[in-house]
């Protein structure tokens, strides 16, 4: 179980931001293709009662072709200015079997999305450059994940990020704003 502090940076050019990160000394840590399968009950128990979401993420490393499948419960902790989540995750070896177990418990696939992610590390700051398929979310964005809030301020200044482009919204909230229904 881990705590993460993150924000999304909207309205940006991914290539331009990637160049800024490299120029500042960022190190490429991964290039991935992801399939994110969101799971909940028909009543949206996980979303509405736990302020969380449950997903199965299949990650394919574009360099090594290694595939990893992880089940994650991501719980949002309400905070001002930064999104704090508590993540509980476990690797799974058989996605279809896990989906069958969840189905037997009353959970179903709510949405499946495909994402390309390029990640960089600069000191204790992680930058994820994300581009979803058009149906999931049509606009690219960057996530900044930090261990301490001071590092977020450092990243904002270092990359000259306009504050109005910073969002603490989840992908579900961003989709809802665009009326992209599951």
UniProtKB/TrEMBL annotation:
This protein's name: Class IV adenylate cyclase
Pfam families according to UniProt: CYTH
CYTH domain: residues covered: 2-177
Lineage top rank: taxon: Bacteria
PROSITE patterns linked to this entry: CYTH
Xref: InterPro entries: Adenylyl_cyclase_CyaB (IPR008173), CYTH_domain (IPR023577)
């Amino acid at each position: 179980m881990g705590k993460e502090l993150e924000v999304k940076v909207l309205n940006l050019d991914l290539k331009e931001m990637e160049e800024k990160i490299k120029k500042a000394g960022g190190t490429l840590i991964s290039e991935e293709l992801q399939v994110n399968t969101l799971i909940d009950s028909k009543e949206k128990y996980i979303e509405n009662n736990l302020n969380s979401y449950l997903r199965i993420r299949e990650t394919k490393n574009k360099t090594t072709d290694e595939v990893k499948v992880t089940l994650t419960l991501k719980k949002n902790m309400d905070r001002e200015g930064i999104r704090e989540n508590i993540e509980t995750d476990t690797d799974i070896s058989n996605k279809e079997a896990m989906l069958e177990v969840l189905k037997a418990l009353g959970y179903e696939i709510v949405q499946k999305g495909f994402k390309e992610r390029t990640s960089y590390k600069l000191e204790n700051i992680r930058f994820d450059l994300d581009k979803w398929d058009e149906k999931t979310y049509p606009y690219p964005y960057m996530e900044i994940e930090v261990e301490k809030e001071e590092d977020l301020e450092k990243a904002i200044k270092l990359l000259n990020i306009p504050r109005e482009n910073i969002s603490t919204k989840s992908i579900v909230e961003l989709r809802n704003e665009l009326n992209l229904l599951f």
